[in-house]
Amino acid sequence: MPDTLSIKSSKITYQVQFKDDFATTLAEHIQPGDHIVVDANILELYRDRIAPLLDSVQHTFINPSEEQKSYQAITSFIENLLETGFRKNNRLFAIGGGITQDIVAFTASIMFRGVNWIFYPTTLLAQCDSCIGSKTSINFGVYKNQLGGFYPPSEIIIDLSFLDTLSSLDLRSGMGEMLHYFLVSGEEDFQRICNEYDAAMKDKNVLRGLVFHSLDFKRGYAERDEFDQGPRNVFNYGHSFGHAIESITQYRIPHGIAVSFGMDIANGISAKLGLITEDERLRIRPILEKNWGDIRLDKVTVDNMLEALSKDKKNVGNQINVILTRGLGDMFKSPLDVTDDTRQWLSDILYTMK
Prior knowledge:
Blueprint: E1 4-8, E2 13-18, H1 22-29, E3 35-39, H2 40-45, H3 47-54, E4 58-62, H4 71-83, E5 92-96, H5 98-110, E6 117-121, H6 124-130, E7 135-140, E8 143-150, E9 155-158, H7 168-185, H8 187-200, H9 204-224, H10 239-248, H11 255-272, H12 278-292, H13 302-310, E10 319-325, E11 331-337, H14 340-351
Parallel strand pairs: 2-9, 3-4, 3-5, 5-6, 6-9
Antiparallel strand pairs: 1-2, 7-8, 10-11
Protein backbone atom coordinates (compact mmCIF):
# COMPACT_ATOMS: atom_id res chain seq x y z
CA MET A 1 0.00 0.00 0.00
CA PRO A 2 1.41 3.45 -0.90
CA ASP A 3 2.72 5.66 1.89
CA THR A 4 2.10 8.91 0.03
CA LEU A 5 -0.84 10.59 -1.64
CA SER A 6 -0.47 13.78 -3.72
CA ILE A 7 -3.26 16.33 -4.10
CA LYS A 8 -3.24 19.10 -6.69
CA SER A 9 -4.82 22.39 -5.67
CA SER A 10 -4.88 25.73 -7.46
CA LYS A 11 -2.20 26.95 -5.05
CA ILE A 12 0.17 24.01 -4.65
CA THR A 13 0.51 20.26 -4.96
CA TYR A 14 0.66 18.92 -1.43
CA GLN A 15 1.24 15.47 -0.01
CA VAL A 16 -0.25 13.22 2.62
CA GLN A 17 2.39 10.99 4.17
CA PHE A 18 1.67 8.03 6.43
CA LYS A 19 4.30 7.79 9.18
CA ASP A 20 4.73 5.51 12.19
CA ASP A 21 6.51 8.03 14.44
CA PHE A 22 5.14 11.56 14.33
CA ALA A 23 7.70 12.88 16.85
CA THR A 24 10.70 11.91 14.74
CA THR A 25 9.12 13.42 11.63
CA LEU A 26 8.20 16.60 13.51
CA ALA A 27 11.75 16.97 14.83
CA GLU A 28 13.05 16.68 11.26
CA HIS A 29 10.51 19.23 10.02
CA ILE A 30 11.06 22.06 12.49
CA GLN A 31 13.16 25.03 11.39
CA PRO A 32 14.14 28.21 13.26
CA GLY A 33 11.24 30.68 13.39
CA ASP A 34 8.49 28.09 12.95
CA HIS A 35 5.51 28.08 15.32
CA ILE A 36 3.73 24.97 16.59
CA VAL A 37 0.07 24.99 17.61
CA VAL A 38 -0.87 21.98 19.76
CA ASP A 39 -4.22 20.78 21.03
CA ALA A 40 -3.73 20.89 24.81
CA ASN A 41 -5.34 17.45 25.15
CA ILE A 42 -2.81 15.99 22.73
CA LEU A 43 0.04 17.59 24.63
CA GLU A 44 -1.19 15.97 27.84
CA LEU A 45 -1.56 12.56 26.21
CA TYR A 46 1.78 12.64 24.38
CA ARG A 47 3.78 14.99 26.59
CA ASP A 48 6.87 12.79 26.68
CA ARG A 49 7.10 12.87 22.88
CA ILE A 50 5.98 16.44 22.16
CA ALA A 51 7.26 18.56 25.07
CA PRO A 52 10.99 18.12 24.28
CA LEU A 53 10.37 19.42 20.77
CA LEU A 54 8.81 22.63 22.10
CA ASP A 55 11.89 23.79 24.02
CA SER A 56 13.49 25.31 20.94
CA VAL A 57 10.46 26.62 19.05
CA GLN A 58 7.64 29.12 19.63
CA HIS A 59 4.39 27.38 20.42
CA THR A 60 0.76 27.86 21.39
CA PHE A 61 -1.57 25.49 23.24
CA ILE A 62 -5.23 25.41 22.27
CA ASN A 63 -8.13 24.08 24.30
CA PRO A 64 -10.27 23.07 21.32
CA SER A 65 -13.76 24.56 21.43
CA GLU A 66 -16.13 26.42 19.16
CA GLU A 67 -15.31 29.60 21.12
CA GLN A 68 -11.59 29.18 20.37
CA LYS A 69 -12.45 28.75 16.68
CA SER A 70 -13.92 32.23 16.47
CA TYR A 71 -12.56 35.27 14.68
CA GLN A 72 -12.48 37.13 17.97
CA ALA A 73 -10.35 34.47 19.70
CA ILE A 74 -7.97 34.09 16.75
CA THR A 75 -6.95 37.76 16.94
CA SER A 76 -5.01 37.11 20.16
CA PHE A 77 -3.21 34.21 18.47
CA ILE A 78 -2.24 36.44 15.54
CA GLU A 79 -1.07 39.15 17.93
CA ASN A 80 1.15 36.60 19.67
CA LEU A 81 2.64 35.49 16.35
CA LEU A 82 3.52 39.05 15.43
CA GLU A 83 4.93 39.84 18.87
CA THR A 84 7.20 36.77 18.85
CA GLY A 85 8.72 37.65 15.48
CA PHE A 86 6.92 35.27 13.13
CA ARG A 87 7.81 36.09 9.50
CA LYS A 88 6.48 35.22 6.06
CA ASN A 89 9.19 32.60 5.48
CA ASN A 90 8.30 30.82 8.74
CA ARG A 91 5.74 28.03 8.94
CA LEU A 92 2.84 27.12 11.18
CA PHE A 93 2.41 23.56 12.44
CA ALA A 94 -0.98 22.24 13.58
CA ILE A 95 -1.13 19.17 15.84
CA GLY A 96 -4.71 18.30 16.67
CA GLY A 97 -8.15 17.71 15.21
CA GLY A 98 -10.53 19.77 13.12
CA ILE A 99 -10.68 22.84 15.37
CA THR A 100 -6.90 23.14 15.52
CA GLN A 101 -6.82 22.64 11.76
CA ASP A 102 -9.31 25.42 11.09
CA ILE A 103 -7.58 27.91 13.41
CA VAL A 104 -4.16 27.33 11.88
CA ALA A 105 -5.34 27.07 8.26
CA PHE A 106 -7.35 30.29 8.47
CA THR A 107 -4.51 32.13 10.21
CA ALA A 108 -1.98 30.85 7.67
CA SER A 109 -4.19 32.07 4.82
CA ILE A 110 -4.27 35.68 6.08
CA MET A 111 -0.81 36.08 7.67
CA PHE A 112 1.33 38.15 5.29
CA ARG A 113 -1.15 37.16 2.52
CA GLY A 114 -0.35 33.52 3.09
CA VAL A 115 2.28 31.41 4.85
CA ASN A 116 2.95 27.67 4.67
CA TRP A 117 1.45 25.37 7.24
CA ILE A 118 1.87 21.66 8.01
CA PHE A 119 -0.81 19.48 9.55
CA TYR A 120 -0.50 16.50 11.92
CA PRO A 121 -4.15 15.35 12.27
CA THR A 122 -4.83 13.48 15.51
CA THR A 123 -8.45 12.35 15.07
CA LEU A 124 -9.82 9.77 12.65
CA LEU A 125 -12.27 12.39 11.39
CA ALA A 126 -9.41 14.70 10.40
CA GLN A 127 -7.21 11.90 9.08
CA CYS A 128 -9.82 10.36 6.79
CA ASP A 129 -11.52 13.54 5.61
CA SER A 130 -10.88 17.15 6.57
CA CYS A 131 -7.08 17.11 6.26
CA ILE A 132 -7.41 17.41 2.46
CA GLY A 133 -9.69 19.54 0.33
CA SER A 134 -8.38 23.02 1.27
CA LYS A 135 -11.45 24.29 3.16
CA THR A 136 -11.04 26.58 6.18
CA SER A 137 -13.95 27.61 8.38
CA ILE A 138 -14.14 29.67 11.55
CA ASN A 139 -16.95 31.19 13.57
CA PHE A 140 -17.91 34.82 13.99
CA GLY A 141 -19.65 35.29 17.33
CA VAL A 142 -22.70 33.02 17.33
CA TYR A 143 -22.46 32.47 13.56
CA LYS A 144 -20.80 29.07 12.98
CA ASN A 145 -18.36 28.53 10.08
CA GLN A 146 -19.30 31.77 8.34
CA LEU A 147 -15.73 32.93 7.65
CA GLY A 148 -13.13 31.01 5.71
CA GLY A 149 -11.73 30.11 2.35
CA PHE A 150 -9.62 27.51 0.60
CA TYR A 151 -6.03 27.21 1.78
CA PRO A 152 -4.34 23.79 1.79
CA PRO A 153 -1.43 22.76 3.98
CA SER A 154 1.93 22.25 2.32
CA GLU A 155 2.14 18.79 3.87
CA ILE A 156 0.06 16.38 5.97
CA ILE A 157 1.55 13.73 8.25
CA ILE A 158 -0.78 10.92 9.33
CA ASP A 159 0.26 8.75 12.25
CA LEU A 160 -2.44 6.27 13.20
CA SER A 161 -0.92 5.83 16.65
CA PHE A 162 -2.73 9.05 17.63
CA LEU A 163 -5.95 7.02 17.41
CA ASP A 164 -4.88 4.79 20.31
CA THR A 165 -6.16 7.38 22.77
CA LEU A 166 -9.48 8.09 21.01
CA SER A 167 -12.74 6.94 22.58
CA SER A 168 -14.93 4.43 20.77
CA LEU A 169 -17.37 7.28 20.08
CA ASP A 170 -14.68 9.40 18.42
CA LEU A 171 -13.54 6.45 16.32
CA ARG A 172 -17.11 5.83 15.20
CA SER A 173 -17.43 9.51 14.34
CA GLY A 174 -14.51 9.14 11.96
CA MET A 175 -15.96 5.92 10.58
CA GLY A 176 -19.23 7.75 9.91
CA GLU A 177 -17.45 10.26 7.72
CA MET A 178 -15.67 7.44 5.88
CA LEU A 179 -18.97 5.61 5.44
CA HIS A 180 -20.39 8.58 3.58
CA TYR A 181 -17.50 8.52 1.09
CA PHE A 182 -17.78 4.78 0.57
CA LEU A 183 -21.54 4.99 -0.06
CA VAL A 184 -21.11 7.91 -2.46
CA SER A 185 -18.46 5.84 -4.26
CA GLY A 186 -20.77 2.92 -5.03
CA GLU A 187 -21.50 -0.76 -4.51
CA GLU A 188 -17.91 -2.05 -4.42
CA ASP A 189 -16.78 0.37 -1.73
CA PHE A 190 -20.02 -0.13 0.20
CA GLN A 191 -19.32 -3.86 0.33
CA ARG A 192 -15.72 -3.19 1.32
CA ILE A 193 -16.53 -1.06 4.34
CA CYS A 194 -19.30 -3.44 5.43
CA ASN A 195 -16.80 -6.30 5.29
CA GLU A 196 -13.92 -4.43 6.94
CA TYR A 197 -15.72 -2.24 9.49
CA ASP A 198 -15.28 -4.54 12.51
CA ALA A 199 -11.67 -5.41 11.66
CA ALA A 200 -10.80 -1.73 11.16
CA MET A 201 -11.78 -0.98 14.75
CA LYS A 202 -9.11 -3.44 15.94
CA ASP A 203 -6.49 -3.68 13.19
CA LYS A 204 -4.45 -0.59 12.21
CA ASN A 205 -3.48 -2.07 8.84
CA VAL A 206 -7.12 -2.51 7.86
CA LEU A 207 -7.97 0.96 9.13
CA ARG A 208 -5.02 2.48 7.28
CA GLY A 209 -6.31 0.98 4.03
CA LEU A 210 -9.73 2.51 4.57
CA VAL A 211 -8.28 5.92 5.49
CA PHE A 212 -6.04 5.94 2.42
CA HIS A 213 -8.92 4.95 0.14
CA SER A 214 -11.23 7.54 1.69
CA LEU A 215 -8.69 10.31 1.02
CA ASP A 216 -7.94 9.00 -2.46
CA PHE A 217 -11.64 9.03 -3.36
CA LYS A 218 -12.14 12.53 -1.95
CA ARG A 219 -9.03 13.72 -3.80
CA GLY A 220 -10.63 13.02 -7.18
CA TYR A 221 -13.54 15.34 -6.41
CA ALA A 222 -11.40 17.99 -4.67
CA GLU A 223 -9.10 18.26 -7.67
CA ARG A 224 -12.03 18.58 -10.11
CA ASP A 225 -14.05 20.94 -7.93
CA GLU A 226 -11.73 22.52 -5.39
CA PHE A 227 -14.04 25.43 -4.64
CA ASP A 228 -17.16 23.32 -4.10
CA GLN A 229 -19.12 24.70 -7.03
CA GLY A 230 -20.63 21.51 -8.46
CA PRO A 231 -19.60 17.82 -8.35
CA ARG A 232 -18.25 18.05 -4.80
CA ASN A 233 -21.75 18.95 -3.58
CA VAL A 234 -22.55 15.21 -3.37
CA PHE A 235 -20.32 15.07 -0.29
CA ASN A 236 -23.11 16.87 1.55
CA TYR A 237 -24.90 13.51 1.50
CA GLY A 238 -26.08 12.96 5.07
CA HIS A 239 -24.66 16.32 6.12
CA SER A 240 -27.68 18.62 5.84
CA PHE A 241 -29.66 16.37 8.18
CA GLY A 242 -26.51 15.62 10.18
CA HIS A 243 -25.71 19.28 10.78
CA ALA A 244 -29.32 19.81 11.92
CA ILE A 245 -28.95 16.95 14.42
CA GLU A 246 -25.69 18.43 15.72
CA SER A 247 -27.34 21.81 16.18
CA ILE A 248 -30.43 20.44 17.90
CA THR A 249 -28.36 18.36 20.33
CA GLN A 250 -25.89 21.22 20.91
CA TYR A 251 -23.11 19.05 19.43
CA ARG A 252 -23.46 16.33 22.04
CA ILE A 253 -23.77 13.90 19.13
CA PRO A 254 -20.39 13.83 17.31
CA HIS A 255 -20.26 14.88 13.68
CA GLY A 256 -19.74 11.48 12.06
CA ILE A 257 -22.48 9.88 14.17
CA ALA A 258 -24.88 12.66 13.17
CA VAL A 259 -23.92 12.11 9.52
CA SER A 260 -24.69 8.38 9.91
CA PHE A 261 -28.19 9.30 11.04
CA GLY A 262 -28.34 11.90 8.28
CA MET A 263 -27.55 9.37 5.56
CA ASP A 264 -30.32 7.09 6.78
CA ILE A 265 -32.76 10.01 6.80
CA ALA A 266 -31.72 10.94 3.25
CA ASN A 267 -32.18 7.32 2.18
CA GLY A 268 -35.57 7.20 3.89
CA ILE A 269 -36.78 10.35 2.10
CA SER A 270 -35.41 8.96 -1.18
CA ALA A 271 -37.42 5.76 -0.63
CA LYS A 272 -40.57 7.76 0.13
CA LEU A 273 -40.08 9.63 -3.16
CA GLY A 274 -39.65 6.38 -5.08
CA LEU A 275 -36.01 7.07 -5.95
CA ILE A 276 -34.90 3.83 -4.29
CA THR A 277 -36.87 0.89 -2.98
CA GLU A 278 -37.52 0.44 0.72
CA ASP A 279 -35.61 -2.85 0.44
CA GLU A 280 -32.56 -0.95 -0.81
CA ARG A 281 -32.85 1.51 2.04
CA LEU A 282 -33.02 -1.35 4.53
CA ARG A 283 -30.05 -3.08 2.87
CA ILE A 284 -27.88 -0.01 3.54
CA ARG A 285 -29.21 0.73 7.02
CA PRO A 286 -27.43 -1.96 9.12
CA ILE A 287 -23.93 -0.50 8.67
CA LEU A 288 -25.23 2.98 9.54
CA GLU A 289 -27.11 1.61 12.55
CA LYS A 290 -23.97 -0.23 13.68
CA ASN A 291 -22.09 3.06 13.56
CA TRP A 292 -24.55 5.09 15.63
CA GLY A 293 -24.83 2.20 18.08
CA ASP A 294 -26.89 2.90 21.18
CA ILE A 295 -27.26 6.65 20.53
CA ARG A 296 -30.85 7.77 20.06
CA LEU A 297 -32.41 10.96 18.71
CA ASP A 298 -34.68 11.54 21.70
CA LYS A 299 -34.44 15.33 21.43
CA VAL A 300 -34.97 15.52 17.65
CA THR A 301 -38.49 16.25 16.42
CA VAL A 302 -39.90 17.07 13.02
CA ASP A 303 -40.37 20.69 14.09
CA ASN A 304 -36.87 21.33 15.39
CA MET A 305 -35.36 19.36 12.48
CA LEU A 306 -37.17 21.53 9.92
CA GLU A 307 -36.32 24.68 11.89
CA ALA A 308 -32.64 23.76 11.88
CA LEU A 309 -32.72 22.88 8.19
CA SER A 310 -34.47 26.17 7.36
CA LYS A 311 -31.50 28.14 8.71
CA ASP A 312 -29.30 26.90 5.88
CA LYS A 313 -28.59 30.00 3.79
CA LYS A 314 -28.90 27.96 0.56
CA ASN A 315 -32.61 27.32 1.15
CA VAL A 316 -35.38 29.45 -0.35
CA GLY A 317 -38.98 29.78 0.78
CA ASN A 318 -40.69 26.53 1.71
CA GLN A 319 -37.96 24.36 0.26
CA ILE A 320 -34.85 22.76 1.73
CA ASN A 321 -31.86 21.70 -0.35
CA VAL A 322 -30.63 18.20 0.45
CA ILE A 323 -28.63 15.39 -1.13
CA LEU A 324 -30.85 12.45 -2.07
CA THR A 325 -29.96 9.14 -3.70
CA ARG A 326 -31.03 6.93 -6.57
CA GLY A 327 -28.85 4.19 -5.11
CA LEU A 328 -25.26 3.62 -4.07
CA GLY A 329 -22.93 5.81 -6.10
CA ASP A 330 -25.77 7.99 -7.41
CA MET A 331 -26.27 10.90 -5.02
CA PHE A 332 -27.59 14.25 -6.25
CA LYS A 333 -28.60 17.66 -4.94
CA SER A 334 -32.32 18.33 -4.91
CA PRO A 335 -34.79 20.87 -3.51
CA LEU A 336 -37.34 19.25 -1.21
CA ASP A 337 -40.72 20.89 -0.68
CA VAL A 338 -41.79 20.99 2.95
CA THR A 339 -45.32 19.61 2.78
CA ASP A 340 -47.57 17.60 5.06
CA ASP A 341 -46.24 14.49 3.34
CA THR A 342 -42.64 15.53 3.99
CA ARG A 343 -43.38 16.14 7.64
CA GLN A 344 -45.02 12.73 7.96
CA TRP A 345 -42.08 11.02 6.24
CA LEU A 346 -39.63 12.68 8.60
CA SER A 347 -41.80 11.72 11.56
CA ASP A 348 -41.87 8.07 10.46
CA ILE A 349 -38.10 7.97 9.91
CA LEU A 350 -37.22 9.73 13.16
CA TYR A 351 -39.50 7.37 15.08
CA THR A 352 -37.16 4.48 14.15
CA MET A 353 -34.24 6.42 15.72
CA LYS A 354 -35.78 7.12 19.13
